[in-house]
Amino acid sequence: MRAGKERAVARPSRRYAYGPYVDGPDPLAPPVDIRAALDEIGRDVMEGSSPRSALQELMRRGTRERRGLDELTREVWQRRSRLQRENRLDGTLQQVRELLQRALDAERDALGRQDTDDARFREMQLDALPSDTGGAVRELDSYDWQSGDAREAYEEIRDLLGREMLDQRFAGMKQAMENATPEDVERIREMLDDLNSLLSEHAQGRDTQQQFEQFMQKHGEFFPENPQNTDELVDLLAQRAAAAQRMLNSMSAEQRAELMELAQQAFGDPRLAQALAQLDAQLQGLRPGEDWEGQGRFRGDNPLGMGEATRAMEQLGQLDALAEQLSQSYPGARMEDIDLDALGEHLGDQARVDARALAELQRELERQGLFERAPDGSLQLSPKALRRLGESALRDIVDKIGARRGEREDRRSGPAGEATGATRPWAFGDTEAWSVPRTLLNAQLRRAGGDERRLDVTDVEIVETEQRSRAAVALLVDTSWSMVQDGRWVPMKRTALALHQLISTRFRGDDLKLVTFGRHARSVELGELVGLEGVWEQGTNLHHALLLAGEHLRRNPDAQPVVLVVTDGEPTAHLEADGEAVFDWPPSPETLRATIGALDKITTLRPSITFFMLGDDPRLAMFIDDVARRCGGRVVAPTLDGLGAEVVSDYIRSRKR
After folding, report:
1. What is the crossing angle of helices 69-86 and 51-61, to 10°?
2. Between vectors from CA 635 to CA 631 and to CA 636, what angle results, nearest 5°?
3. CA nearest 646: which of 397, 387, 396?
């Protein structure tokens, strides 16, 4: 045991509070799903949308985890509608009328208890007051009240008007001016005079920074937002003044006139209203771009005071701005334009999180180089994006093949050739698989000779393979209007994507040529095919497509020739000697002769030819059967869902032939 007494050390207790992460993006949030987003964009592009439109559509639609811009916009409009449906703007007028009636009732009660000619005269004065509230308040300005309660109610009218007018333009002023003294009112008038002087100097283009600093040092308590220069101060005040003007515009002409009349009675001195009118005029000249002419229709039961009504108009303006930002319909629109703070204020924190996640998704798609500029300046999918789309398409096809055959999924790259059973020492540049038994045996023999190293590069032996033959592949895809009309457009493109991905990753020595054929045929790159838009065009020019396929096969005389034809119609066009495409329906004898002639020329190269017939047209079936027998080819009639699996399987079968 240790001698002596141990001293207990007091440890400060720690308290933890948990809440939503608000300081930037949540570090524990799941990463954006780029692959799923790219699949959706790719599907829209293959259906005919431009990459930019597809990206915008993804932002509008959202993802499985996040609401899209359309849903957020709908909530903004619902919030806007609720604001107008539940409130009305005449709260201050209603309060003034109630206070005026209270003052008149108290005064008449006091006069009724007096049996004098003066009391009767005063009652006549009260009976002769103008019918409008503003005129009545003005007439009573010099009235000598006999009732203390009546005088108090009348003074409350003037204080209320002053507080509401200031609250329209200066945050928190209504509460600050409760029980205001004449000295408080005088300080307000002095602040307004100094403010108008500052804005007048600024409007003339003079440097007002020093005057601004002096103004803020003297009157900064009225501006808790703490603007840093005159421009920031003008922006702040102009937004509120414009909202106040929109509030007036939203009232009826009678209400507006009554309120303007009452404004002259604020704090019992018309100078306040004059100073505010001068301020509004200067702000409108400095910021003409603010919405000074707008209005809103409020039809609810909840009366709002002038300050509350002005803030309601500000909210309407903010909601309108949010709706425009969320629409992303203006030139140069970006997700970063969305005011996340305003969105969270009006729709809640989850809306802010959803919009921020969509913005991060857009940035990540662009950062990873999934889009690039075409020579004409348009946006197109980059090779990296096409590879990812190809991976997705091929993965789906492999799943279908495995499910159909009862096979396990295998996405590993294939070897360079078929294994012979022999092995040889590894040499620099070899990519064949290791022979694990021979490698371990070599290591054991070396260690038995006294070398303590567990494994050395000289121990490695690889599996020898036969040199695999290469193939020249021509994929001919029908791009006539019937492919679009009957829903075969996207399956055709996904098939081309999957085949291109397979060849570029597992059979890199093969040479794939993509040929589209409508009225004319042409060789295309994968990106062109993926972004190809369906157009109404008559003609299925298989003749021209076979000519281009033959050129490709002849350029690769040492490769195994493979021709894959995907079509949903008989050949109805052929190419004349002058390069003009001639269309006929039903197919003319000239078109059939030209098509059969091109097929016979290809047949001399001894290719593997497979026709993938889409649809159930009996005439097409009869034609395809005839030409397949003629060239020794195969005919496959896949479903749309199984097209890709059939094409990929046939390509692999053809290589093994």
Report:
1. 50
2. 155
3. 397
- Paired with 581 in beta bridges are 575
How far apart are alpha carbons 490 and 641 in whole angstroms? 10
- Which pLDDT belongs to residue 46? 62
Select from 160, 68, 86 the least CA-distant residue to 315: 86
Evaluated on CA atoms 238, 242, 247, 253, the torsion sign reads: positive
Specify the DSSP class assigned to residue 25: S
Q: CA dist 520 to 166, 185, 437, 472, 603, Å? A: 74, 84, 58, 22, 22
Confidence of residue 8 (pLDDT cuts 50, 70, 90): very low
Average pLDDT, stretch 438-453? 85
Give the largest Cα separation in the chain, rounded. Answer: 138
DSSP helix, strand, coil percent of the chain (3-state; round to 5) = 55, 10, 35
Closest alpha carbon to 133 in 108, 162, 167, 104: 104
Q: What are phi and psi of 475, to 5 degrees?
A: -100, 110
Query: What are the residues whose beta carbons fall under 8 Å from the beta carbon of 177, sequence distance 6 or more?
Result: 159, 162, 163, 166, 184, 188
Based on DSSP, count helices (H) and strands (E) in the chain, helices before strands. Answer: 25, 14
The answer to pTM > 0.70 is: no
How far apart are the C-alpha atoms of 242 and 310, rounded to whole Å?
Answer: 9
612 vs 567: CA distance, rounded Å: 6
Tell me the C-alpha distance between 88 and 306, whole Å.
11
Q: Regarding beta strands 87-88 and 302-303, do their DSSP bridges make them parallel or antiparallel, or are they unpaired?
A: parallel
Q: Please report, for residues 151, 240, 256, 621, the alpha-carbon distance to residue 158 in angstroms, rounded to integers and kept in the order given.
A: 11, 22, 17, 92
Q: Compute the distance between CA of residue 155 and CA of residue 163 in angstroms, rounded to an integer.
A: 12
* Interval 475-528: pLDDT, tens: 888 888 877 777 777 788 878 878 887 887 777 778 888 898 888 888 888 777
- Nearest residue to 276 (alpha-carbon basis) of 158, 160, 169, 161: 169
SS (H, E, C) 351-369: HHHHHHHHHHHHHHHHHCC
Phi, psi (5° rounding) for residue 570?
-65, 155
Mean pLDDT for the stretch of residues 67-96: 88
Res 296 pLDDT > 90:
no
Name the DSSP letter for residue 642: T
Phi/psi-derived region of residue 406, left when phi > 0, alpha when psi is between -120 and 50, beta in every other case: left
pLDDT surpasses 80 at 530 = no
CB-based burial, 158-181: b 16+ in 10 Å, e otherwise: bbbbbbbbbbbbbbebbebbeebe
pLDDT of res. 212: 92
Taking alpha carbons only, the member of 239, 224, 226 closest to residue 171 is 224
| pLDDT single digits (tens) 206-229 | 899 999 999 999 988 888 888 899
Distance CA 307, CA 423 (A): 89
Show the tokens assigned to 286. 């400095």
C-alpha 644/C-alpha 564 separation (Å) is 12
- pLDDT per position as a tens digit, 300-342: 888 888 888 888 888 888 888 888 888 887 777 778 888 888 8
Q: What is the mean pLDDT of the chain?
A: 79
d(CA 69, CA 75) in angstroms, rounded, equals: 10
